[in-house]
Design goal:
The complex is a heterodimer of chains A (280) and B (298). Chain A has 280 residues and is mainly α. In chain A, 81% of the residues lie in helices and 0% in strands. In chain A, helix 3 packs across helix 6 and helix 6 packs antiparallel against helix 9. Classes of the chains: A mainly alpha (280), B mainly alpha (298).
């Protein structure tokens, strides 16, 4: 009897701790939503507590500022995720099916680039892209190098996957006269849809949050991705109006796409996020 | 496959691998080689590069700001790793021990929300709302209950590092807990049952069974934390500019300024190479320590 009572006390303590942690983690976002509906007076006199009436026009103002950046981010992240998955699946497949001298050496060198700290190459990559290739202030200048950075992990993940596919299928296809390209498109890729989707989502999310590189390359405000735009919009708005609420409404708006995407693909998301640790 | 001639495969592999390896060569290998070369030269955009040997390194190491930056980096990386790992392991343990599986699953999703919101939103939220230096800042409001005067936090020389370390409190919103959780779930059922039969308390089980089993994950986060921590200067870039009075400056931010603002590319590359050597050495060290402690346990 006594033991049971202690157990439940432990349970209650555990639930309370988790609940408190959860509250603390989500609190900033709750405050964000509450504050995003305020006007100037409400923000100054009641900075945290909910106030009425709700100023939904904040969201209309914010939308004008952020809508462009949402499309830009979708374009940039989508292109990077698509290209990196395409290129690493082609490469991964080639490493899986062909044999040539020095293959494993080339493969491990390519994959080991994953461990190279990005700070080492930041300076020379910037010079290469902005000066030598002349891609300053262009989407290509953001997309191409970021794509390259994601290839090593993609190679590792997809080659492993292709290696594990049953050999019988491709042998049968070969007897029927299918070339490597046909086998890749008709057999290997359809069988790897789950892994390819996971990689796509992971790469999409990583680049969705990228700040440093787009900041260095993009100049024109019309090309800004979400993270850069948020900062410049917040500062500009606060300077002229001395309050934050519409900027905070903008934060809420730009958070929506990823939450929706997660809602539809949560399983692949979680799989992708945990995959990284075990491959290393 | 065997039917194909050897030469044929060479050609085919070349065609297939041309684009993937081409990308890597242009955007990863070339910049790395170029960084090492640039660190030994005086580089200017109009051509005219001259070989200066170790002058860039001398300039960097004799700069007192660089010393300060390294110190700041050490402090931020050290506390960042402790807070992040301790908090995420705690959360993973709590969710793992939760009897109500449905609640545990729901919490798993709730704790992921901060990862899904753009990182910039979180940073700006902490800057402009929670640790805001004005009287409307959330922390300042809480402290004013105890009669404490508003603090400038990120913009006060005394508190800026503390504020950066405290940012994202309670440090569990991320994917770390998921990785620890799946590590815990991989512990053989029989181990835990045997412990339960022997009447081992949960606390003892955590220290003698769970943590040793999590060693692989802890090592992973340790290495990642070091490598990312040494390179990270997001907060400096977005919030503090390395100030006030260089109290939050880190080498990575110095590299950025020399690359972008001042065009001292040689010195920037020298910092990059230094940080690379540092992370490489630290990674080897961490691997060595992990190997040793694994042998001790076994």
């Amino acid at each position: 009897m006594k033991k049971r009572l202690r157990l439940t006390a432990g349970c209650v303590a555990m639930h309370l701790t988790v609940f408190t942690l959860c509250l603390l983690v989500l609190l900033p976002f709750a405050v964000l939503i509450v504050k995003s509906f305020k006007d100037y007076d409400q923000e100054i006199f009641h900075p945290v507590s909910p106030t009425f009436p709700l100023h939904t026009e904040n969201y209309e103002i914010a939308w004008l500022y952020v809508k462009n950046s949402i499309f830009n981010s979708f374009f940039v992240s989508g292109s990077i995720a698509f290209l990196s998955v395409l290129i690493s699946s082609v490469g991964g497949y080639a490493f899986s099916v062909f044999s040539f001298r020095g293959k494993e050496l080339v493969y491990s060198l390519a994959v080991s680039l994953m461990m190279m700290p990005s700070i080492l190459i930041l300076t020379s990559k910037y010079v290469l892209v902005s000066v030598s290739l002349g891609l300053q202030d262009s989407f290509a200048g953001v997309i191409l190098p970021q794509t390259a950075g994601l290839i090593p992990f993609g190679l590792l993940l997809l080659r492993g996957y292709f290696d594990a596919l049953p050999k019988g299928l491709s042998e049968a296809a070969e007897i029927d006269g299918a070339g490597t390209l046909t086998q890749f498109i008709r057999i290997a890729l359809p069988l790897s849809v789950p892994m390819v989707t996971t990689l796509f989502l992971m790469n999409f999310m990583t680049t969705w949050n990228d700040y440093l590189w787009p900041l260095m390359i993009l100049r024109n405000e019309e090309k800004f991705t979400i993270p850069i735009n948020l900062q410049s919009f917040t500062d500009a708005f606060y300077k002229t109006n001395q309050y934050y609420a519409p900027a905070l409404a903008g934060y809420v708006i730009v958070s929506v796409p990823m939450l929706v995407l997660f809602g539809f693909t949560s399983r692949q998301f979680i799989q992708g996020m945990t995959a990284g640790a075990f491959k290393m | 496959m065997a039917a194909l001639g050897k030469k044929n495969q060479w050609l085919k592999s070349f065609v297939w691998l041309f684009v993937p390896l081409g990308f890597l060569c242009v955007f990863c290998v070339y910049p790395a080689v170029s960084a090492v070369c640039t660190s030994f030269t005086e580089w200017s955009p109009r051509g005219k590069t001259s070989f200066v040997l170790f002058d860039n390194y001398k300039a960097v190491f004799s700069d007192p700001v660089f010393g300060k930056a390294c110190g700041n980096m050490g402090i931020l990386v050290f506390f960042g790793m402790i807070t992040g790992n301790a908090a995420t392991i705690l959360l993973a343990e709590l969710l793992f021990n939760m009897k109500e599986k449905r609640a545990a699953k729901a919490y798993r999703y709730l704790f992921l929300i901060p990862t899904l919101v753009p990182g910039m939103v979180s940073v700006l939220l902490w800057k402009n709302v929670i640790f805001a230096g004005t009287e409307e800042g959330l922390v300042n409001i809480l402290l004013s209950v105890f009669g404490v005067k508003p603090n400038a936090w990120y913009f006060s020389e005394r508190w800026s590092k503390f504020a950066i370390v405290m940012t994202n409190f309670p440090w569990v919103g991320g994917i770390g807990f998921l990785i620890y959780l799946s590590g815990l779930q991989a512990i053989p059922e029989s181990c835990i049952e045997a412990a339960q039969l022997d009447g081992v308390t949960t606390w003892k089980r955590v220290f003698y069974i769970d943590l040793p089993f999590l060693l692989g994950q802890i090592k992973y986060f340790f290495v990642i934390g070091l490598v990312n921590g040494v390179q990270n200067f997001d907060f400096q870039l977005i919030v503090t500019d390395g100030g006030p009075n260089n109290s939050t400056i880190v080498p990575g931010y110095m590299l950025y300024m020399k690359t972008y603002g001042y065009s001292k590319l040689g010195e920037a590359s020298a910092i990059g190479v230094t940080l690379f050597v540092l992370t490489f050495a630290l990674t080897l060290l961490a691997n060595g320590i992990a190997k040793r402690s694994k042998e001790e346990i076994a």
